Amino acid sequence: MAKTKKPPRWYFSLRSPYSWFAYRELTERYPDVADGLEWIPFWEPDDLTQKLLDEADVELPIVPMSRAKNFYILQDTARLSKARGLKMTWPIDKDPNWEVSHLAYLVAAREGHGRAFVEHTYRARWEESRDITKRETIAEIAGQIGLSPQLLADAADDPAVRDEGVQCLISSYKDGLFGVPFFVHGRDKYFGVDRLRPYVAAFRGQDIEEVERSWQDYDELPRFSAPGGDTGHAGGCG
């Protein structure tokens, strides 16, 4: 029996500023691509999720971030947000549990409001400097998009949702993810917001030149640059 072909997909993190940039570009510039992708969240697991990953013999590419890299990312995201005309804030994460927001996304997606949840959560984190690892923040976002605050705020307590989240992380491992945003089309992989245009070309079956002609470059961004993305880490880039 022939293998079922996997759909094109992208891995995003609500924690990552580079995923936020990619989200904005996908939805604003390439809505057809955004609509045709499978959206899969990626995050740094808590102890319970890590135990389930260990049982599945899955090791995620999460490593400590150096001080130098942390300062670089602060500078880099300041440049990229300015070039995009975005007023960006840097929240302070105190003892974060990333299951709270990312598993809430899975519930929101199940209810048909996944994209709205992502929009409101990115806004809360990167424009309002709010702590999206707090259940009260997620409860408020749930109310804003017409969902049960308790249902989303307590998503991490639901064993079935937890298992679904583990499958997302296992999928990232099988796809060879090493950072976000991470795009997959067939056997081809693209890392970083700066590789979005080549990915769009692959998705649409177009030449990169055709995609470039429809692109209005940001003032301070080179045509091609080093990948802008978050590699796995244990903390430091928000």
UniProtKB/TrEMBL annotation:
Name of the protein: 2-hydroxychromene-2-carboxylate isomerase
Domain of life according to the entry: Bacteria
Matching Pfam families: DSBA
Catalysis performed (reactions): 2-hydroxychromene-2-carboxylate = (3E)-4-(2-hydroxyphenyl)-2-oxobut-3-enoate
Enzyme class: isomerase
Keywords: Isomerase
E.C. numbers: 5.99.1.4
Domain DSBA-like thioredoxin residue range list: 11-197
Stored InterPro entries: DSBA-like_thioredoxin_dom, GST_Kappa/NadH, HCCAis_GSTk, Thioredoxin-like_sf
Family stated for the protein in its record: Belongs to the GST superfamily. NadH family.
